[in-house]
Each structure stands twice: as structure tokens, then as C-alpha cells.
Amino acid sequence: MQLADLGADVIRIERPAKMTRATANARVLQRGCRSLALDLKRADATEAALRLVARSDILIEGYRPGVMERLGLGPETCLAAQPKLIYGRMTGWGQSGPLAQEAGHDINYIAVAGVLNSIGEVDGAPIPPLNLVGDFGGGGMMLALCTVSALLHSRAGGAGQVVDIAMFEGAASLMAMQYGMKAAGRWDLGRGCNIVDGAAPFYRTYRCSDSWIAVGAVEPQFFKALLRQLDLTEEAYGSQHDKAQWPRQRALLASRFATRRRDEWCAATAGSDVCLSPVLDMEEAALHPHSEARKSFTTIAGVLQPAPVARLSETPVDVPLAPPMPGEHSEEILRWCGFDECEVNGLLRTQ
Predict the structure, then answer these.
(1) How many alpha carbons fall within 13 Å on the CB side of residue 205?
(2) Which residues contact 61 (CB under 8 A, 6 or more apart)?
(3) Global pTM exceeds 0.85
(4) Which residue among the candidates 105, 242, 263, 340 is catalytic per the annotation?
(5) What is the mean pLDDT of residues 256-278?
(6) What is the DSSP letter of 73?
(7) Who contacts 316 (Cβ-Cβ below 8 Å, separation ≥6)?
(8) Is 241 in the active site?
(9) CB-based contact 50:81 (threshold 8 Å)
(10) Per residue in 84-98, pLDDT tens?
(11) CA-CA distances (angstroms) from residue 24 to 115, 297, 351?
(12) Do 95 and 86 meet the contact criterion of CB atoms below 8 Å apart?
């Protein structure tokens, strides 16, 4: 999706399937892509895929190690068809190592990466941060960056290559700041006892009389602004970074925030550098004035979704096209690859 948003011609090879238009429109991650329906267990479909590879810059696959090789589309075969190809491999555990063939999901990858243990209340269970850290942050975004970096190398005269991205390693990479803080003696291994994990009274969420707000008054000037808004003196509050006082201070701030509605607190602190924000749900986020001013969300084919994130001054991105129906572009893609009418009909008729 991110590559398509940036203007890449992304072709998704997927199994032939019947699907309603409404169901297809909800496949937000496939927006802006074209769809080629092929049964890759068939020899003629594999040949068609290889002809597409020969005209492509990047191939991305997400099977367990060895599956693409069994389909006849492994790196050696594909790089023989297109020596400049960037072959991106996305797995949870990577192409090698004792867990390489183990099944798993985001929660498993971030558990082994040391991420999951760091998220949650001090005496509570680890809490999965949706599937954002493994699947998308440590996985998809790392793969996009690395494949484009390899493509730059290829276009500068280098050879094509294989990019091995493991979600658990990508998730661990996102923890680099915490590893640095630990080395400096400023991060504890336990949950809910560090400055940005919800333990600090000045960096956590609070329940208002009706909903939730988020406070991030870390720096001294922002912290002082917070105390002013809450009508608290530094003497009454205590030392900002004294962890021994954090439980009392959390209770003190919680009692203050509970006295007013969320939007009242947001209105009272607007423009004051308190670093206080409403905790919005997905629909509210799209209606926030800042989102509306920047057009941060969009509706495509009736489906509300985040707009493309890139703001490029010389090459602005377009509004993405609606996600395709499976096989919607099969005929045009096959013809682009050089298949004649008889070959196209033979491939599509028997699927």
C-alpha cells in the first residue's frame, strides 16, 4: 500500500476468487494496486509469473521459507529471469535460524523481540499494541525501506539481490532507543515503571468525567505548564522525576482530570504547550480539525481510511484508486507481459 501510494505500479498476484465489490473496497491494504489472478500451483501460471518478474523491479513474497522455491519462483530462478530484480522476503522469523519454519503471528514475533514484555501496567499482563509493531512497523515499513534502498543500488549499476526481513528483528530495531536508555541506566526491564510506558504521571492517559485524555508533558517547560493548568504548585506536586513519588502523583492528577469532561480539558489547555490531547477513536480521528485541515483521512469507494502519508513538494501523490477485485486486471497485465490472445484466454478460462 505504501509503495502504491508513492506511485509504484504494484501488481498483486492472488488466487482466483469470487468477491463482491463492497468486500473488495474494504481491502484497504490493496488500494492503488492492480490484481492478477493466478493459481501458482499450475505450471503455466508459474511461467506467466516469471514473465511478469522479467519486467519488474521488485518482487515481494510473504510465504514461509522454501515455499516460493517449491512453486518454481525462488530467488535463483527469478534473478535469472531479471538480474536487476530486488527480491523482498517477508517472514516473522527470517529465512534462517531455529524458528524459521515455525508458524507465528505479530504477537509471537514481538514477544521474542523483547517488545511485548515492555508494554502494559506494572502488575498486569503484557498488552499487544494491536498488530502495529510486528506486522507493519517492524515488518512492512522495514521491507519497503530496504527494498527501495536495494533498488537504488541496482539502478546505480549494482546487481539485484535478496532482501530478508524478519518481523521480530524489525520490531527489535524499533526498540533501539530503549536499549540505549537501558545502557545509560534510565530504563528498567519491568513493565509500567519507565518514563514512556505509562508509569510517569506526566506521560500517560487519564480518565476524564466522560472519556480519556493523553498527557505528554515531559520537558520542564511543558511540565510546568501542566501544573499551572491543574492549579498545582511544584511544592504540592513534588519532584517530577522522583519515581518513588509517581504513584501519589498519578493519583493526584487522576483526581483532577476526573472533575471535567474531555473536551473541556482540551479547550482549557489549547495553545498552552501542556501536551494534552484527546484520546480519539478511529471515526473521531478523521473528524478532528487538524485531520480535516491536512486532509489526513479520505474516503475511497465509501470506505473511510488514512490518506497517503507522503507530502512531496515536487511529486505530490494522487488519491489512491479503490482496491481491485481479484483478477480485475489479469487480462491487461498478461497482455503487457507479451501474452497473445490465445495464451491469455487459455490462462484465464481454466482458472
Answers:
(1) 10
(2) 68, 73, 87, 88, 89, 90
(3) yes
(4) 105
(5) 96
(6) -
(7) none
(8) no
(9) yes
(10) 999 999 999 999 999
(11) 33, 19, 19
(12) no
